[in-house]
Amino acid sequence: MGRRRAKLGRISDLDLRLLRVFQAVAECRGLAAAELRLGISRSTISTYLADLETRMGVRLCERGRGGFELTDDGQRVYWAGVELMRSLNDFQDEIESLGNSVRGRIRVAVLDSFVWLEELQFSEGLREFTSANPDVSLELHVFHPDEIERRIDEGKFDIGISVVYDDTGRFDYMPLLTGKSYLYCGSKHKLFGIPDHLVSESDLNNTSYISRWFDAAPEHLGQNSEIAQVQSFHVEATVHLVLSGNYVGFLPAYYAQRWVESGDMRPLRQDLYHLDYRYGFTVKQGRRLSPAGQAFIDSIRKAVRP
């Protein structure tokens, strides 16, 4: 059978809606997970996908008992859709900046630990920004660093505030503040009761640890990365694992302090095991910030305590 010719023609609002549904299904790797993300039924999602395939004249994905997988055409449509949505967002930002008024929408993603960071009064920065810019619609999300950068790269977030851990050349970074992470164990861990000066490197080399990809914990401890027994994607998850008593892991000093004071965890060999980190703003490389985006960054920077 010959290949059907694409029938898309002029793009309509309905086409954009169908593309957004398709992107959600592709990113969720199936209809079931996309159902929760989109808030619509699986049967409706299936109908939308079929409608988009009819409009495109190609099969976008294989879905059924064998699992979900994008076809080659589906991959092309997905990435073309990502570029289209990014262009639409850029156009919207440009129009909303006319007249130098601060309005429109900004989508921001931050780490899960900022609520405890005393050096950054993040809620105060939000208060100043939202009070001074009532015509701006702010979306605020919480993700781990890798997810923040991925979604910025795809045009789904405008600004990220995260650990700056790898300069890939795809992003522009603006510094915010710096800090330190130390290696911690919980009160139930076998090393907790040993005086710090008696904890040897050999003890730590033979201890199960929590791997966080941007902390490079295995290499920092002199261990092969294959030894890692658990991986954490969030600071709070790392805390739970440390408190279990089965693992050691790096945590920002400000975040661990409350458990140190309560006697539930302690740092290990701060003289040997410490990491410097940088927090900063992340934006897509070369993308001009809207007036609302710049106003947001300015407000958050003012919330940093000297």
Put simply, the count of helices is: 11
Average pLDDT figure:
84
- Sheet bearing the most strands, described? 7 strands, mixed
The third-level CATH topology of the largest domain is: D-Maltodextrin-Binding Protein, domain 2
Write down how many β-strands occur, each being a DSSP E stretch of 2 or more residues: 11
CATH class of the largest domain: Alpha Beta
Following the backbone from N to C, one meets helices and strands in this order, namely HHHEEHEHEHEEHEHEHEHEEH
Total separate domains: 3
Structural class: alpha/beta
> What is the CA-atom radius of gyration, in angstroms?
23 Å
Amino- and carboxy-terminal Cα gap: 70 Å
Which architecture of the largest domain per CATH? 3-Layer(aba) Sandwich
Runs in which pLDDT lies below 50 for 5 or more consecutive residues are: none
Q: What is the general shape?
A: globular
Walk me through what this model shows.
By secondary structure, this protein is α/β, with parallel strands linked by helices. It has three domains: 13-81, Arc Repressor Mutant, subunit A; 92-177 and 278-302, Periplasmic binding protein-like II (D-Maltodextrin-Binding Protein, domain 2, 3-Layer(aba) Sandwich), CATH 3.40.190; 179-277, D-Maltodextrin-Binding Protein, domain 2, CATH 3.40.190. It contains eleven helices and eleven strands. The protein has helices at 13-28, 31-38, 42-56, 72-96, 122-132, 145-153, 201-205, 217-220, 235-243, 253-261, 291-302, and strands spanning 61-62, 69-70, 104-110, 136-142, 159-163, 171-186, 210-211, 230-231, 248-252, 265-267, 274-284. The chain is globular. The N and C termini lie far apart (70 Å).
